[in-house]
Known about the structure:
- Residues 211-501 form the Gamma tubulin complex component protein N-terminal domain.
- InterPro entries: GCP (IPR007259), GCP_C (IPR040457), GCP_C_sf (IPR042241), GCP_N (IPR041470).
- GO terms for molecular function: gamma-tubulin binding; microtubule minus-end binding.
- Belongs to the TUBGCP family.
- This is Gamma-tubulin complex component.
- It is built from 35 helices and six strands.
- By secondary structure, it is mostly helical.
- The protein folds into five domains: 3-89, no CATH class; 205-343, no CATH class; 390-489, no CATH class; 518-623, no CATH class; 625-763 and 771-834, Four Helix Bundle (Hemerythrin (Met), subunit A) (Up-down Bundle).
- The strands form three sheets. The chain has a two-stranded antiparallel sheet. The chain has a two-stranded antiparallel ribbon with strand order 3-4. A two-stranded antiparallel sheet has the order 5-6.
- Helix 13 (280-309) runs antiparallel to helix 16, helix 27 (626-655) packs parallel to helix 30 (713-730) and helix 31 runs antiparallel to helix 32 (767-802).
- The longest helix has 37 residues, at 671-707.
- The two termini are 65 Å apart.
Amino acid sequence: MSEFKIHHHVSELFSLLGISKDAAERYTETLGQSVQHFINTQVSASSAVRILAENAPDPQAFLSKYDELKSRNVRDLDPLVVFLSGLVEDEEVRKAIESGSRSKMKEEGLSFTTVPSIVSEIEHAAETKLSKDQLNELRDRLLRESQVTHVPSEAMRAVERGEKKNTLGPPTPSWLDNRPYHTLDFVQVEHRPDVGALGKVASTSQEHQLIEDLLSLMVGIEGMYITVQPPAKHYDAPEFTVDPSVEPSLSALVSRILPLCGHYSQLVRFVEDKSLYHHGLVNQALAAALTSLIKDYMLLVTQLEARHQRWALTLHKLWFYVEKTMAVMDMLACITRIITKSEAHGGSVLSLLHDRTLSLTGCGQLQEVMVFLTQAAAVPYMNMLAKWLYRGIINDPYNEFMVVDRESGTEENEDQDLADDYWEKRYTIIPHNIPAFLQMHADVILRTGKYLNVIRQSDHSVVCPDQEELAYSIRDPSYTEVIERTYSFASKRLLELLMKEKDLMGRLRSVKHYFLLDQGDFVVQLMSLCEDELSKNIDDVVPTRLESLLELALRTSAANNDLYKDDIQCDLQPITLMNQMLRILSIETEDEREYYPQEERLQLSGLQGFSLGYRVTWPVSLVLDRKTIACYQMIFRHLFYCKHVERLLCRVWVSNKVAKSFPLSASRTYTAAFALRQRMLNFIQNIEYYMMFEVIERNWQTFINKMQKVENVDEVLAFHNDFLSGCLKDCMLTSPELLRMISKLTGICVNFANFIEESPEPAATTHEDSQSFEQTISRFELQFSGMIYTLMEKISEMGRDNYNDALVNVIYRLDFNAYYAKKHEHLRMATSPEASLEYISGPVSG
């Protein structure tokens, strides 16, 4: 995460909690230095649950909710519980959150009161006599609090209305619901035939009839003396009731076998439900695998029924034959219940199956069955994975794959200008769709497909070599080798495409030449040619004339040898550099909003709004997207305007040469102005030197060294982002306060230069004009010195708080001989009453 995002999140968090934002910079720096992957090594999830339960108003309700979420296989539940327990144990954080919540709710006209406290007040009201107004107030308070804490979500409302989400795949035929006997599960019959008590017949006949009922129940047909009650929830097993008149010994044997009938009912219900289109290919494949197991189960029932017809089957023998099958059916019913209850889909189904398979290590037959189910269910998922790894294509009609394509555009419009959010936002990981056995490879899988997708758009003939069929395996995961091999091929091929075929480094050097003012003669030519045009109001500047002058500057300078000079274009932006910086960084906290202009359209000159643009083709636009170009434009506008100010001051210096011919009395009038001009020129030149050599050039060399060891495109993006972030930060473009001070100082320099240019020569001035000139120069001196002192103090403070050594170098450049420090100390002594008295009178000798 970049420093700008951390700063944004910290500021937003402070705003929500009602905490002062003065410490935002310090916390941002601390977080930036300590960003690392969270590894829970001290506090276990069980101890965290215990801590939260002890601090919860209703511990039993909390534990029930936790168990429910755990059974639904909710991802990242344990890390969340550990995080919440940390908040509960940290007294300072908890108090800060509570105080922030109270203040925020007070602003909204609400009170920070829990529902249990209000209930206790109502119970107290039942014992005491309250007036009608008091009861109405208490009722309104309860309603208001309930609206705050118990607003149902849209999904919950849909559940309450009985709506069923079924938007994927073809519609389900209506006849599936209109034909109740189409199912293999139990059918509810409203009127059962009236039969007598089974206990009135002999025990042998009772056993024979009970076996017949059990064999019917085992295939989903209700018996005569064993009835079926539907389950309370659709994922539970039905309940069975045996005729109470049956002998207890026979009833006990029947009760042992009846759970097998319930497991069958659960499996059949799961197969019939998950075979529908909208449940996805993984669930359909799992249902098909379960169907093959149910066929084997049906064969067993058929063999038992044949024995029963020959009077060769007793309840003891029946229990002996189904005992092993009972364990398998129980395991299958358990896993289908978890899948149905958690509404698992796609990769989450495979995670549940894989976890259950691992838990059965040592249980030979049961684990083999689970491996068979997991392999069968993983076939469609592995086919999606193979297409993604080998071709960079997502074929996921039911949103089951771990990678989602956020955009459904065609390749033609992808080539235009989609690179801005392409790399970060188009293809993203869906955490709950990552199978547990692919969790450690998720990031590599995502990058492999993205690489191949970019390669495929540039060269359709590229094919990943050695394509193998992927299959799930618990003992020999061959897919790991395939993932590593395809990633190695894709990363090397894309890096070769960018570096050699598309000449990425040549493009970046070209951008550095123009946006970072690397070509000195080009900048001089451009400013000389465009000065008259850019001095107009930005609305009066003719863009076509600017384009012509830019091309002329390119052709008549050393930039003419650049292969990519034709991609440079003019760009006039009707916003200030301050506004552009805030828009790019998206820092919209209260501290930064004060820098936004009151009007959308500002009256800017062409010089203040002028910038360069750059045309980039795919796939180089992955690196040089619009946001990156905008960052380069910010640096260019800052440097370009500083160059303009330096040019004005140098012009004043040239025009002041004529002062050598003035008489001595007239020359003394200009002494203060000449000294101030030289200080301004020293300031602007040192700021330029610091930004161009100590910041940009140093960061560029670091970037070049890193690029020589780069191994994939993600590293290219990260290194380039680090280069730009370092330049923006050390050039003082990420701090609105510093940028505002620099802008005020350059504004003072521009006003001073214009004043000197417009001032008449000494021969045409009077004594009053000379005094007015000296007073104006004195005001410029006070403004410039005061702003310099403020800038140096702010830089010193930021460098001390953020440990930014590069920024502190500005102070050594601006005040290399301690001139400003001594003068500031002199002014401070002069303005302090006690210090000024001591300063004037001197120390008293004893």
